[in-house]
Amino acid sequence: MALAYGDRYAADQFVAQVPADLRPCHLVAAGGVAGVATEMHAKLIGPTEIEPIGLLADHNGIVNLLACAPYANLPVLSAPRQRPRVIAVLGTLMNSGKSTVMSCAINGLMRAGKDRMHYLDAGAAEAIDLTDFGYATTFKLNFEAIRALSVYMVDTLGAYNDIVVVESTLIERSLTRSKPGLL
To answer: Which domain of life is it from (predicted)?
Structure first.
């Protein structure tokens, strides 16, 4: 199986970091994120152990998610002339109900006549996530990178849609501990 290495912070699952080498590590997210689990929720049995056998490469060298992403996370030079309405669904932890609220909001908007799997099933015209922009997780990204990613995602969806519904987990240890007033 092909996985993406990534740092991970999921309070009800695992805290993990990218290993420095190809040592045995763990599957720390069902979406295919590999890392060394350093902490886990007390209710879990443990992470799935994996043994990497190599890194994917092409003629340019080692392949990473950012190089393969359909959308590049380019710097935002200027705002589009007109942005769509944005509904932000924010939470402080994983499993705080953000995805459920997003699905209900999308379903309601579609029923009102406004024109990835779960969200498309709810009626969204298009669904993207951070992996489409080259990131396995946002854990340990600095504020500027997270902001640029968020703006670029809204602008990408806003080019073809009237309303954009976004989901984000606001509280991550590295961001809130280093700059508590930033959010």
So the answer is: Bacteria
Residues 98 and 21 in one domain: no
pLDDT tens per residue across span 17-50 = 999 999 999 999 888 899 999 999 999 999 999 9
Looking at the 3D structure of the chain, how many domains does it have? 2
Residues 165 and 90 in one domain: yes
CB 148 within 8 A of CB 71: no
| Helix (H/G/I), strand (E/B), else coil: 105 | helix
**Residue the block writes with tokens 């990835």:** 116
Range of the domain at 161: 85-182
pLDDT of residue 176: 44
Helix (H) and strand (E) counts for the chain? 5, 10
Residue 94 CB neighbour total at 10 angstroms: 13
Contact 37, 43 (CB under 8 A): no
Q: Count Cβ neighbours within 10 Å for each residue of 52-63 and write b for 16 or more, e otherwise.
A: eeeeeeeeeeee
Whether residue 177 sits in one domain with residue 107: yes
Exposed, middle or buried by CB within 10 Å (0-12, 13-18, 19+), for 16?
buried
Question: Does 72 fall in a domain?
Answer: no
Stated as kind and residue range, the H or E segment containing 15 is strand 14-17
